[in-house]
Amino acid sequence: MQHYLDRICAEHVDVSDGKLADYIPELASVDPNGFALSLSSADGFIYESGDAGLEFTIQSISKPLTYALALDQIGADAVDAKIGVEPSGEAFNEISVDRTTKMPKNPMINAGAIAAVSLIPAATPDKRFALIQDFYSTFAGRRLELDEQVYASEKASGSRNRAIGYMLQSFGVLDDDPNEVLDVYFRQCSLRVTSTDLAKIGATLARGGVNPQTGRRVADAAVVKRTLSVMVTCGMYDDAGDWVSAVGMPAKSGVGGGIVAVLPGELGIGVYSPLLDGKGNSVRGVRVCRSLSEQLGLHFLTVARHSRATLRAVYEPRAGICVYEAHGDLMFSGAEHVVRAADRQRERYEVAILDVSRVDDIDDAARELLSAMGSTLRGEGKAFYLVDPDGIVIRSEPELEVIRFHTVDDAVEEAQVWLDQNRRVSLD
Ligand code: DON
């Protein structure tokens, strides 16, 4: 997996299209070459590539989280009375409301996000911000801190957002003082995260509101379902249709250069690269997500199968031999789960046997991970056999250099021969 991520980063290292967000002056001072990719499995295992420790401001990636907090605190009906769920097809900072309802079209554009802030019940702006900061931090599994410079810069240059705030007040969407609501909105956008925080936030959404690392339920499953739905239709603004067709994951971008993408039930992805396209999305971030989705088969409309229910049994028929029995459909994240289980238990065996005789379907990403597992084990002086009677993993044998058997018994016999020979060699 690590090789996979490093390879995808290497493929995009030269992408330098786009420009830094400069309408918030402080954002124009970041290193344009910063680049990081992190991935969290649904059980909280983290992979990182590039500048994964580098902090940047969360910006609009805050919007789905504040929306989730509003849903959690006051319920969907009260939120729906103020913010719609329709894609706007407009820029993120459009000064507009829905023509008929006179409400913001959705919570992912600034108008809807500012309205969502005003729905968090709190006696003062500081208390409201504290609730927001605590909520985001539980998703990331660590305390997220405010970037004072970016906050000051946003506050000093936020005329457009102020225009949106006053417009919302005039339509009766904002009950509170627009300046106080905006102050909290500027602060939420200025919280600092890393690509790994985004992957963890994504994985918490992927797990329906349970942070896989801390084990804490931080939001209701129904709240997360609604939040992910709006991310699918509105998360990438006027690029949403293209994104869903090409990448196929609920996602949210921010002008700080981050993107979070979620494969429900499977993965959270965080990417950082601050050069943006005209829609405010990270150019390289979007391309990396496209590649990840294509190469790992992550599009949510093709992975609606039992890709996690793959490792049915692990057993040791003889000392030094471990059999991993997979079943169902073996897609990328299911294969990652199998490979990681075998990797974790590498002290237990000299020969690993992967039994795919009950696997119905497999994709190229899973095939590649399994063959990489074979070469890694061989590189460590171990043996790796495959029980694949129908040839679903191995279509042509020289292709993957894996020894293939028709039954587990045959593979175990051969493993025993290998063990006897290699033990003798090590005794000699
Ligand atoms: O309201 C703004 O302009 C920023 N604080 C956030 C905008 C943003 O991140 C748009 N996303 N791509």
Describe the overall structure.
With 428 residues, this protein is of the alpha/beta class. Helix content is 44%, strand content 16%. It has 16 helices and 12 strands. The strands form 3 sheets. A 5-stranded antiparallel beta sheet has the order 2-1-7-6-5. Helix 4 (110-118) packs across helix 7. The relative contact order is 0.12. The mean pLDDT is 92. It binds 6-diazenyl-5-OXO-L-norleucine. Residues 59-60, 92-93, 110, 154, 161, 189, 253-255, 280 line the site of 6-diazenyl-5-OXO-L-norleucine (DON).
Question: How is the topology of this model organized?
Answer:
Elements: H1 2-12, E1 36-41, E2 46-50, E3 56-57, H2 62-74, H3 76-80, H4 110-118, H5 125-140, H6 148-156, H7 159-170, H8 178-189, E4 192-193, H9 195-206, H10 221-234, H11 240-246, E5 251-253, E6 258-263, E7 267-272, H12 283-296, E8 311-318, E9 321-330, H13 332-344, E10 351-362, H14 364-379, E11 383-387, H15 397-400, E12 403-405, H16 408-427
Parallel strand pairs: 9-10, 10-11, 11-12
Antiparallel strand pairs: 1-2, 1-7, 3-4, 5-6, 6-7, 8-9
Bound molecules: 6-diazenyl-5-OXO-L-norleucine (DON).
6-diazenyl-5-OXO-L-norleucine is lined by residues 59-60, 92-93, 110, 154, 161, 189, 253-255, 280.
